Every structure is written in C-alpha cells, then in structure tokens.
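Exercise (ungraded).
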Amino acid sequence: MVITFGEMMMRLSPPDFQRFEQANTLEIIFGGCESNVAVALANWEMPASHVTRFPSNPLGKAAKQFLDKNGVHTSFIQLQGERLGLYFLENGVAMRAGRIVYDRYHSAFAEIEVGAFDWEQIFESAKWFHWSGITPALSENCAKECLRALEVAKQKNVFVSADIYYRSNLWKYGKKPQEVMPELVQYCDLVLANEQNLEEIFGIKMEKTANPFVSSASKMIEKYPKIKKVVDTERISISASHNQIKAKMFNGKDFLETEYQEINPIVDRIGGGDAFMAGLIYGLLSYQDDQKALDFGICASALKHTIEGDTNLATVAEIENLMRGDASGRLKR
Amino acid sequence: MVITFGEMMMRLSPPDFQRFEQANTLEIIFGGCESNVAVALANWEMPASHVTRFPSNPLGKAAKQFLDKNGVHTSFIQLQGERLGLYFLENGVAMRAGRIVYDRYHSAFAEIEVGAFDWEQIFESAKWFHWSGITPALSENCAKECLRALEVAKQKNVFVSADIYYRSNLWKYGKKPQEVMPELVQYCDLVLANEQNLEEIFGIKMEKTANPFVSSASKMIEKYPKIKKVVDTERISISASHNQIKAKMFNGKDFLETEYQEINPIVDRIGGGDAFMAGLIYGLLSYQDDQKALDFGICASALKHTIEGDTNLATVAEIENLMRGDASGRLKR
Amino acid sequence: MVITFGEMMMRLSPPDFQRFEQANTLEIIFGGCESNVAVALANWEMPASHVTRFPSNPLGKAAKQFLDKNGVHTSFIQLQGERLGLYFLENGVAMRAGRIVYDRYHSAFAEIEVGAFDWEQIFESAKWFHWSGITPALSENCAKECLRALEVAKQKNVFVSADIYYRSNLWKYGKKPQEVMPELVQYCDLVLANEQNLEEIFGIKMEKTANPFVSSASKMIEKYPKIKKVVDTERISISASHNQIKAKMFNGKDFLETEYQEINPIVDRIGGGDAFMAGLIYGLLSYQDDQKALDFGICASALKHTIEGDTNLATVAEIENLMRGDASGRLKR
Amino acid sequence: MVITFGEMMMRLSPPDFQRFEQANTLEIIFGGCESNVAVALANWEMPASHVTRFPSNPLGKAAKQFLDKNGVHTSFIQLQGERLGLYFLENGVAMRAGRIVYDRYHSAFAEIEVGAFDWEQIFESAKWFHWSGITPALSENCAKECLRALEVAKQKNVFVSADIYYRSNLWKYGKKPQEVMPELVQYCDLVLANEQNLEEIFGIKMEKTANPFVSSASKMIEKYPKIKKVVDTERISISASHNQIKAKMFNGKDFLETEYQEINPIVDRIGGGDAFMAGLIYGLLSYQDDQKALDFGICASALKHTIEGDTNLATVAEIENLMRGDASGRLKR
Amino acid sequence: MVITFGEMMMRLSPPDFQRFEQANTLEIIFGGCESNVAVALANWEMPASHVTRFPSNPLGKAAKQFLDKNGVHTSFIQLQGERLGLYFLENGVAMRAGRIVYDRYHSAFAEIEVGAFDWEQIFESAKWFHWSGITPALSENCAKECLRALEVAKQKNVFVSADIYYRSNLWKYGKKPQEVMPELVQYCDLVLANEQNLEEIFGIKMEKTANPFVSSASKMIEKYPKIKKVVDTERISISASHNQIKAKMFNGKDFLETEYQEINPIVDRIGGGDAFMAGLIYGLLSYQDDQKALDFGICASALKHTIEGDTNLATVAEIENLMRGDASGRLKR
Amino acid sequence: MVITFGEMMMRLSPPDFQRFEQANTLEIIFGGCESNVAVALANWEMPASHVTRFPSNPLGKAAKQFLDKNGVHTSFIQLQGERLGLYFLENGVAMRAGRIVYDRYHSAFAEIEVGAFDWEQIFESAKWFHWSGITPALSENCAKECLRALEVAKQKNVFVSADIYYRSNLWKYGKKPQEVMPELVQYCDLVLANEQNLEEIFGIKMEKTANPFVSSASKMIEKYPKIKKVVDTERISISASHNQIKAKMFNGKDFLETEYQEINPIVDRIGGGDAFMAGLIYGLLSYQDDQKALDFGICASALKHTIEGDTNLATVAEIENLMRGDASGRLKR
C-alpha cells in the first residue's frame, strides 16, 4: 500500500479556452499534489490510500467519491470541518498563459489539529509514504502533523518520498520553509527538487559545473544521509500548447536521464509533475531499475498532458507503448 | 439614486435538478440580498448604486461586470482583499428541498475595515438606502460600517429600508443580533420582518390577536419611532415546485395585504424576497400608493420565481400585467 | 401527396427558461406554420411536399436538410435569394409569458417574384393543398403567388385548406388583409378561423347566440360556397405551463367538438395550432369521419405541446392512445 | 452486508424531453433493478455488495467505477466477457409516455457460465440477499446461477427478498417464468409482487374480495411457507409528470399500508420501485417495525422520483422528514 | 446512381478529449465504411443510394434520418430486426491514441437472411457499386448477400469498387477472409488495398522492389483480370493530432501518386479512408483522369480530418481549392 | 475618452469546429470592427465610448449590456429601429477555412437617418475618434453621418484614426468606395491600410520598390496632408490554425516594423486586426513612442487570437510580457 497525505481541492475551470470573465459554467474536477499520485497508482492497480480531511458537507462527500470512483482507499479520510479547498483554473493556449486563483485557506484540511490522524494504524500495511512541500506550507498544524507522520513512517521502515514543492506565496501563516522543511526532509528516501529549491530551502549552493544538478543532489545526499535518490524534471515551454519534458535522477552513484517527450497539443498541463512522481513510484516498485522507472515516470507525465483533469488516467499499456518509442497516436480498434 | 450595501456572492449550482454529488459542471450566477434589489431597480430603469468590496482577482472582476451588465452603478465598489464569497445551491423540486452550502467567511467584504467607505460621497445624490440583517452578521467591522452608513444617511435625510433577515447560524463572530440590530434599526424608515423576528431580535412579544402582525408591527413602530412601515411576505409551500405568496404592510395606520400569487412551477426560488423588496421600493417611489406598491412588490416577486438566478429580470410591463390579474402566460409576439 | 406552401424560418431560443439577456447560446430549430403541417404528416407516413424558397447559403441548406431528415419531399424547394427568415423565441413558464422577436422581413421567401413556382407541376399528383394567412401578409408578391397557386389547385380539383392566421402587426407592406384575403379564401374547402377573424377580415358579424361560432361559420359558408368546413381550437391558458385545449367544427350541417385536453406541464407551445391542422388533415384523409378527425387533431395538438420544437413528432400510435382516453403517460418498455 | 445480484446496464438518454430522433447527445447513467437497491443502501451507510459481471473493456470499467463512487462493495464483480448491457430511455412528460429501447441481450452478465460466482465466499458476512425476476429471464445460465445462490443463501440463513418483476417480452431464451420462478421463490422470505403476478406466474387465483391483495398474499405464503411478507406498491398515473404512489404489505398476520405520496413534477421515474425495495430493506433492518419500514420505503421511492438517474440519492434525513409529513420542499440553508 | 452496401452504426463518443471513464454524455454520430462514401457523394450532388438494414425501433429510424438529411437515397433501406450496431469512440490527441470499442454483433444488418435485398431492382439505374471487406466479415449471410449483389452487378455492367478492409479480430463467425474474399474480389473493377492485405488475403507475395505496391498490384490485376485499378493511401502518423497522408494508384499501366497533405491539428480521423474512396469515385466519374481523381480523393480525405464525424462535409469548391495548393485556411467572408 | 462609431452585430457560431449543417446550437458573441476597439481599450482601463444604434428589442438590449459589462460607455447608444445586425461564423481549422454568412442589411444602424447623433456633445471630452470603412459601405446615410462626425471631430481637434477596410461585396447600396472614401479620409490623422487598398480606393499606384508599402504610404500622406501615420499588418497563413503576424508603420519619416508573432493554435481569428488597432491607440496614447506602440499593437493582436470572441480580453500585463519576448505560456499561479 502506498500512502499519500495532503489536501485535495475542488478545481473549477471555465470550459475550453474561456477566460474567467467569459465563463457561465465551471467544470468540476478534483486534484491535489499528493492525491494525484494516489489516483494514478490506483489506476495502475497498485494499492494506494490517501489521508486527508474533507468538510462534512455535500462538497466534501463529492470529493471523497472522486477518490472512491478512482479506486483509491479512503478509509483514513475524515469528513469534518468547515470548507473544502478550492482553486479556479483558466486554461492557457498558444502564447497565453493559464491562470490559477487559489481559494484554499481556512479549509478543513488546513485547519486540522495536531494528532488528527492515527499514523500507527495508517502505516500498518504501508510500504511507501509520499508527501509534498505544500502541506507544511498550509498551516503550522499541517507542518506538525507531517512531522508526526514522518516519525512513524521511519520507525515502521516505510520508504518516504517528498516533492519539495516551493512557491513563496504559499507560506502565509508566519513560518518560512527554511525553518520547517529541513527537519522534515531528513526522514526522506527520495526527493523531487531542482537546484534552485535545494539552494533556497536547504542552503545547498548551486555550482557552475557541467551538471549542476548532480553536484547539488550529491551534496543534498551528503547532508541528509537517509536520502538515496534526488530526481527532477525539465520542461521546455515553447508555448502553453507545446512543451518538451524530460526527467533526471542522481541515485547517489549514477546520473540518469530520459529523452525529451514532445507534447503538442497539451490538453491539460496540471498534475504533470504529480504524474511523473506516480510513474516513478510505480516504476521503482515494479521494475527495480532506476532508468526504467525514470522512463515510466516521464512517459506517464507526457501522457497526463493529453488528459483533462489533474490526474493521470493513462494505462500501463499506453505508457509502456510510449516507452518503446511509439508516439504515433495510431487508433486502437 | 437608490443605494444598496452588502455582500454579493458567486453562486455555483449543478444544472437542472442534479444533486451536488452528481454534478460535473456548476452554473455561475451572482447574487446577494441587497445587490439583488439594486439589479431589479436598474432593470426597471430606476438608478441604483451598489456599495461593496470584491477581491482584486478575476473573480472579483467578473462579479463587478455582472453589476455593470445589469446597469447598476459600480463606482463605489472596491476591488481589494482576498476572496470572493461563494455559495453552492442545489435546486429543489417537488417534495425535495433545495440545499445551500455557504462558503462566504473570510471574504473581501466580510473583512473590510471600519471606515472603508466614504458615505458622505456615496449618499450625495441618494434618496433611498437599503441594507439587510445579513451585513452586521458577517463580521464586527461589517456591523460597524453599517452603523456608519446609517448615521450619514440619517443626517442627509435619505429614506432607509432594512430587511431584518435572521438566520441564527449566520452570526458566528461572537456578537448576537440582539446586541447589534436594535441600534441599527432605529435609523430605519421601513422594515421587512415577521413577528418571530421582531420578538427574537427586538423583544416585541407576539400576541394572539386576530392579526398578530399588526400588533407586533405597531409596537415596533412605537419603540422605534423613525419606522413608518413594517412589511412582510407569507409563503405557502405546497412543494419546492409550487408555492403561493402574498405580502402585507402596516403603515402606522392601515393594514394592507395582497392577493395570493400562485407559482407553479417554480424555476428559481432564490431572491424571491429581494424581488419583493425591490418591487416595494419601486412602487413606493413610482406610485406614492402603499397598496399599489405592495401589489407591485408581490407581482415582481412572483415573476422572479420564473427566472433563473437571484435577480429579477421581469419588466415593469410584465409586472403591471400581472397586477391587472393576467397570469395566463400567453405568448407575446 | 399533401402540398404545403409558406415560409420556414430558423428559430433561435435560449435554453431552458433563460431570458434573452441571459443567453449565451441559442438552440436551433426550424419551423413555419405550413411546413409544420408537412413535417407532421410525413412523420405519420402520409406523403407531403413543402414548397418554399431558402437562400443559397449554408443556413438555407440546413433548413432544407431539416425537411429532408423529417421525410418531407423537397424537390420543389428553391435555393436562391439573400437571407433566411429568423425568429427568436424566449420560452414562457408559470405566469411569465413567452416572447417572440421576429426577424423575417427581406427573406428569400418574402422576396420571391410572381411566377416563381410551377404550380402545374407541383399539383400534378396532389390531393390536398394547405396554406395560411401568413403568406399573403409577407409581401405583395407572396400574396399574388398564393393566388396563382389557388387558381391552379382549383382547376386540378385539389382540396384546399387555409389557416386564416391573423396578426395585425404582420401586414407591413401596405395592403390590408381585408383587401387580400377574401379573394383567396373563395378557393378554399376548409378554413381554420375564429369568429373574431371572420368579423375582422371577412366582415361576418359575430352574433350573441348560444353558439356564435356556428352562426359565424354558417354565414361564412354561405358567403364563400366552396367552403365546406370551418374549424377552430379553444385554449384556456391557466399559465404558460398549463393549458387546456379543445377543437370544434361546423361542417355545414353539424356542430362537432372535442373534450378538453389538459396539458401540464407544457414543454413547447409553438406549433400547437399547426399540429391540430396536420392532425385534422390526417384524420379526414384516413378516417373519413369528421368527429374522429377532429379528435385526432386535438390529441395531436396536445401531444405536440410535450415536444421541443415547432413540429409534431408524436406517433400515430401515441395519438390514437390519447384518443382512447389514456393520458396516463405510463412508460412504454 | 446486503448482497444484491443482477445486471447493471449503461443507460443512455436524450437530454431533457427530447425524443430519440432529436437527440445529438445521450446522457450516461448506470442502473439495474438490483444494483439500484445496493446503491441506495450504500448511500444510507448500510453496507451493500453487488454481484455481477461487466465486460473487460472501458465501458465495463466505467460501470464498476459508478458503484465504487457510490460506496457499493465491488469485490465480487467480475470484469470479463464481451459487451455491456445497454438501454436507451426517452423521458416522458405530461400525457406523453416515456419509452425504453432495451439492448441487453448477449451481455457479459447474460452469458455467464453456471458456477461463475463463489456464493460460499460471497455470503460469508451477509445478512440479506436480494434478487429479482429479471435475472432468470435473461438466460438459462442466469436462472441456474440464481438457484445456486439461493441454495447457499438458505444454508447460511441469509434473509432473502425477491422482486417478482414480470414483463413477458423479457423471457426470450425458451423457458417461461412459470417453469422457472416457482422453484426459485421457495427460497424467499419476502416477495414484492402484485396479484396479477401471483396469478400469472404462481397460479394463485385472484379473488374478488374487498382486499384481493391480502387473499392472494396469504395464499402465496401458504404455498411457499418460507415467505413471511408480501409487499407491493400502487401507482396512480395522472400523467407522466404527476403520480401518486403508496405501498402495502401482508406480513402473514396484518395488512399494512401507507398514505399516498403526491409527486409533481416527476424528474425521473426509473428506479422508483427499486428505491421502495431499498427503503423497505433499510427500514426492516433499522426499525424492526413493519409499518415504519413500509413508510420509509414509500418515502424513499417518492423522493427518488425527484432525482435524475436510476438510483436514489435522497438522504435518510430527507426521507425521515417526509415520513413526518413535510412535503413542503422548503430550502435548507 | 452510386450504390453502397454495408452496415451503418451509431457512434457514441465522449466530448472533446475525455476518456470513456470521464464521460457523462456521449455525442451521437452515424457512420459506416460504405455509407460514409454515399454521404460524401450526396454532399457533392452525385446521386447515391445506401443499401442496409436498421432495426424497427427509434434508433433505427434516427439512423435512416441521418442519411435522409444528408441527401442519400434510402428507398432500399429496410427497417426490421433487433438492434442497431454501435461503436464507442474515444478521441486521441498528441501521443495518446484514440480507442474504439465495437458493439456491432447481433445487429439487424449482421443478421440479414440471404436474399434479403432485391439486387435486380437496386441496380436498375446504377452505374457504380461500392462495398468493403467489413461486410463479409460480419456474418456468413452477409458474405453470401455480398456475393449475390456482385453477381447481379456484373451482369448489369455496374462498375464495382471494393475497400479490402482487413482487421483479423473482425472475423468471428468461423470463416477466414482467405476463404471468402477471393471469390468476391473477382467481380471488382477497382480495389483499395495495401501490399500486406494482398499478401495475407490473396496470397500475393510482397517483393522487395523499389515500388513493392506496383509489383503487388500488377500481380493482383493478373490474378483477377476484371480489376483495372489498385489504389492505396499512406499515412505518416507524427501524433494523433498531426498526420501526413498521400495516395497512390496502379492502373494496369502507370503508377500515379499525390503529394503529401499535412493535417495539423486533426479534428476527427475516423472516415478518412472512406473520404478518399468517395473522392476517388467522384473524381473518376467527373474528370475521367486518374491523376485528378487521385488528387481529389486525397484532398477530400485531408479535409475530412478537419470535420467532426465519420462523414465528409467538405464542399467540391473547398476540395478543388486545396487541389490548387491552397492550404492556408483563410477566412471566407 | 476614445470615441468609436460603427455597427456591432450579434455573432452566432456553431460550437467547436462544427459546420453550419451540423449545428444544433449557436454560441452568442457580439462584435464589430469599431466596438472591438472600444472594448479592448476599456479592458485596459482607457475610457472608451461607442456610438451606435441597436433595435429597441431584447436583442438590442443584450447587445448594449455586452458593452456595459465590458466597461464601454454606452450613453450615446440609441435603442430604436427594427433589427440587430447578425453574422454567422463557422470556425476554420487546419486547411479548412472559416466561413462567415453576413445578415446585416436593414439593421437599425444601417437605417439611421442623417443627423441621428449629436456629435458636438459626443466629442465634448474626446481625444480620439476611430471609424472604419465598413460604416460608409452600409448605407448612404451611414456614409453621410460619418462625414458629419468627421467634420465635428476636426473642428474640435480630435485625433482621427480610420481602418480602411475594404471588401467589394459590402458596398451594395449603389455608391462605390472610390466615390465616398476620399472625402472621408482627408479628415484622418492615422490610417490602417495596405498598398492594394490605397491603389484601389485612392488611386495611389503601387510601385515595385524594395518597400512598396513605404512608397504608397508616403504618397498617401502627400495627397492627404492631415494623415501623419499609415500602418498595416501582415499575416502569413500557414493554416487556419497557425498564423504568423507582424505590423509596420510609416510615420512620414521612418519605416518601423515588428518581429513576427507565431500563433499556434489559433482559438479565434476574428477581431485580430481590431485588436491591433486598439493596441496601437493604447500604445500611442500611453508610450508616446511609435515603435513601442506598434509592438503593443501586434502583441495585443497575437494574444487576441487565443481568446474566444471578437474582442480582446488580454491584460496589459500579458501584452507587455509578450513584448518582452516571453511567449512561453507558463502557468501563472
């Protein structure tokens, strides 16, 4: 069982390429950095359980049903509290960028109390725990609950991955990521981060080497010796409709990278990074081969861009087909 | 110019008769108890200006554009603050009741500072000011700003109407309506309230007379001598799709009431009371005749029930046609 | 073959019960007083051919395809001229009336030249010709072409029915119906008209008898001896959503009438009269029994009110079921 | 755990009141006589598991996800076979009846082999088993598998209910219900059937007594002594939009019945009977009181008619509110 | 008159780029390999008549109306039998392939009896007959009826074209294409096939020459001397959204080919081959010039990819404009 | 205040890439060459007032509300006359061109009387007046009213820009542009026109120089000495989905031009030229720098192509970001 922990929001988007001011309806989708990972894994028939809190109202019930529908285990989800986190997404196209208006503060999840979840029970049959840097940014209690989870995970030998997601305008409750993240990251086995993140949050100075990612990653592993792998993705944004992405890993020994995947047109760019993370977890657990895992991750991410919503509904067969180099999109009858 | 003051929210509803759990899209409409009055008046070509605050984001801009489109003056609307108040509406039908999930706390309007609005300027060319009991329920600052507005209105001889709207679960910030409303109501010339409201909030004991509304209303007028008229509506709810409504007034001297209007089927029940209030204001200003004003109000309210959204888009001609007793709905070519 | 002659327009309606000002999309349907008759007959597998002109553009092509889809013969339809007649329809509901904005002037049909159609060929295998009072109202040429058609119909012994449809604001080109209609009506075998029409247009004074319809109809038959039957419908409009309709006939000898049909709720009221006319034609041709024909007509009309669009898609089986008194609407599996 | 067994189909309906010929899109909903019971129970937080087979294609996966979303246990559902059963539904309104076109033959479920399901395991923690007369009508194997289930249920003391659903045109594979149903019904504790069913299928002659239902039901109980209760509903169909329904029971001793529930307008009539059955099961298990169970059932059924789709999403609170006589549909804020 | 023979199915697709599991509605379109040819020809005002059978239910009626609307002659279409063939299409985009789930077995067409159609009458005024390899794959009777048609066509000197369409998973009734197709193909004047088809079905060994298509085609013509032309298309699939297509022909003497047409983005890829076939027929009949016919065919096919649905609604003017090299897509006012 | 003068039409488009014949709904948008300029300027918070006439019906009211919503001043708009100008737009894609069917003749605007507008009052606080060559093409009165406006503008020293828009099929009332435009253009300070326009309408012979635009423009300025700048755009149309655009100016002294902007995919091409004009006006008034104004114009135009509708809703920040060379479309959180 893979355990994911974090907020899942209701996403509301104007249809097609409408701007917010043009919209008369909004399309409902649910997504969150960590639950997106759980949904992708469940879709690939790898058991996953998401831990969060939704409000005890019909919107919270709908959020939970989204996970149930997608086969994610929801037995550790709590239905209490006041409001569901929301975000409004306007799609980008060509040279026009997409826009997000967040409305997630004071959500049921952000306002959890410390000790809200019984991590002993949650990790009972777990082999992997995934969290992200968004959760400790939401509230002081979220940061503390994250630490509680990590302590139990360590003690139960659960493998821990973290997406060191960083946007300065997320941290509004008074603490800075530099005060919070280092304590949390020391419990991790794998981190997704780029050199800028490592410098800004963990003080790992970037070096002007041929491969600065490798130098930063190896210093990170030195500093936090539980970390075994540092991974990252690179995105060349030709336009909002046309991107190229690749992935790379430093596993303490080797530097690995994938080919670029060409995505044109992009249907929905949201959740592309989470799809990579899910693919990487799936790949590491299925193949025991870092390169194949990285390839699965980037192909999963590329296909995610062709699917509406935050979550990846591409099949293992489709991803493996793309890994074999077939990007032709030929009709399957 | 009629001035209205209060929050306008984005309303998000599943289409047709879907339950929240079934919805894949939500329809966007904007509404608020007081802005609904302004929109109706503007639609009837009576100048109206709404005073509120929307966040400085695309959703706030869309809210303002809704009022602009409908001809309401928006020069006193401020675009600042964090979030737009929201509410989610599930339509009722037959014996199934509609449901509302409010998500309006911490909105840009609820978090205004005292002194946010320049009431001297706002009331410069005003002849009527309308507010409701929702505003002082939202936050202590809202209550105080309401009082500031009322003081200036009095001093400038602006006629003041209030909708003594009361739902106990609205008052969450610590004060009770009994502590706040009496001070505000003494500035009013006309109040919309039923006997229960008058007893609960103002301590006017209901009497078991033939017409308890008249006894309560006359005691209210005695207690708050600036009040000249007390009005109310009555609703017989045969089902969520079929209602009968009428209106009544005590004007300090006479008791007036309307016939019942039969509404079947109801398209959208939200804003029915606000449509009555708008109609009453329009009627009093246009006809100088309490009975005709009351009739215009109840016919405006009845027609509102046939229109999607919180606001009344029925024309004066349609309302006057209904006042003449023509409920036949015959096609106009 | 039943021949119908007249304009068919594109109808554009806001969805559901939206007002024009609320609409962001318009639903496309095609309809016209006479083509509605042809579509209903074709639906019941009685051969029908509609004669008209559409512009030679994609909208005209779409109009023709609507008739083709519904099985109406279109070989006498001409694709030439400038614009397609349009009308905008806002649905009514409860006490709110529907509204129509016509935009049909200068249409390809209104601007036909006299002699546009080869009536000798058109009536070659015809047994019935149906026209309405709308056509001579559109333009002087339309009135003249109508007369040309009637002359040939008479000479070929084609049975002629007319819907003496009268709205004063239709006649805009300078002539009055009183100048035009009497010459046309003398070629008719059956007319649909009420006493008011007969008085206004043909100068048949209404009498205050027990059955003024019979007295007016019998005087009409006296005055225009080719007329054999005068028919009419009565509509009690409880609201835009709830009507009761019945039909009546004076066949020169007997007065016949139907029961009232109760329609609640109304889905689409447009074309209700045309559905009656089509049903009457079908009934007269199929049953050779005035009462059964009248019953078929009113039941066809009632069922039309439950169907979106101007045209009647109820089946003969459904209509005959209603004629037997079954209005229960029980599911057919 | 309540176990339900039978086919669930994809239902495809034109939107609103469109006829099939008018439709350009079809709305997808899933439903089946027995799975509708499971969904309703799960919605009321009574554990329910549905046993069926869906094809191993994306449509089968979507069907399973519908049950997952609604909280029904799906661990005994098999994904194999060729096609998903379908049905096309055209909504009725006013006097126009709804129409269903079934397309369910050769479905994955209809083509199960005998022995497809491991009933020992399925009934391990079951307390109730519900099946209907549709299943043995689909194929000989379905009938045989039904018998296998019933034998195990009996042996494990699982309470058995059956909906003796009978449409002659369902039985197409060669056997008649009279040959199959008697053997199956002897395993039942509760049957839903009317006097006509009991006569046609089980040869229980209807008697012209004051209450023929009681006489037939008591003879049925005599003949099949495992049966403890016979229940039925009555529907007065004023139109496709307006029905009145009530329920009745003979429990071997007493005749019980409910008040009529008035439903106007009907949003979706499909699954009304299944909602009653689900409500009855919920009521019997929750209240241990036949009258309250019958009341819960009929109120659940009435509310179902206000909800789109085959399944009942009314809450226990809404149903109990209606049981207390509140059909007012007043908005819940 | 061009006669086409084969099944037309209802196609059901999730809107936009939704996966099946995300869909709440399905869009209805009709299509079939052979009827697509007839619709394209009718659209270009070349008379075409499609021969098939639809079930005698509202879905069958809707299918027929689709052909009527598009101007195809439907007088030889039979309305009888049980079910309409269906297929479900999920659109592909970028590197994600589209998916089709067929549900066409046991359809009214597949279950025709031998002798179902009166080919003497059908071919009375025919000059061209088009069929495809799908029909003999559906059932033994379909294969036999195909042979009956071909025998009459030969005897009446109707020109015969065949699309040697081959998917192994279509042939489910026991026969192999190698047993059936050779007998049928000997009646053909023109076949659409690639070298793989010719080898697999007709045993024409591919040769590693500079132009293996020409060698295979010329051996095919040798083996089946009635064949005068072998044609094929080539598709380079850069992604599901971006393809390049060209066409080629061996006419017994010369090898002809077209330029590549670049299609980006693809709106709907289904029916691209049928559009080529229709264009080729149109071109051969209109221009009497193999190269121009081939060019018309490939340009028709390219434009088809920009149109929703299986059928080609591009105009002759649009196709000829593209033949002249104008792919600029400049707005036509 | 910028004053714009001209017709605004209701635009009706099939959704997505449907052809007219496939459409069942039409999407409503409003647009016109000159009002598009006003909407863009108002969106950028530069005061703009549009002068026109709409019919006094609900469609005219909706048109006015569109401008109100977008912040354009509407106090000089008249609600009178018969019909609203319409146009039907079918979107193009890939090599398929978009199509427009105009239906604008006999509109309320085209039928204005000379002297309809009080230009003295309109230009009271104006600094810029923009008109186009469409207006004098609509009717003789429109041409005369245009001249009246220009005379007053000159006398009040209002800067005048004109879009010398020319389509021969627009001029239907008897006059030719060569008879009308020269008199009007002499009042202009800035004209948007290409060399072909200048030759056809004003008799400025094109020269085969290295930069024929500069030679034509400088001769134009010589001939009409009030003109200070001649501007134009160039469009390379790779397909209906992929264009490259740039702008150029001759300001009497220097030739300026912009880089090409690459637009792929195009969402909506209509109004691209008007967006350039609006951007140029905004740039000239804001930057006092011809090159920056030209850059702002072309970037505004490029972004317009990514927005549904005729009008530009891109923000100043987005346009300035693109001016800095960022076409990456990276998501804004």
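Further reading is listed at the end of the chapter. For now, observe: Chain C has eleven helices and 15 strands. Residues 230-333 of chain C form a domain with the UDP-N-acetylmuramoyl-L-alanine:D-glutamate ligase fold (CATH 3.40.1190.20).
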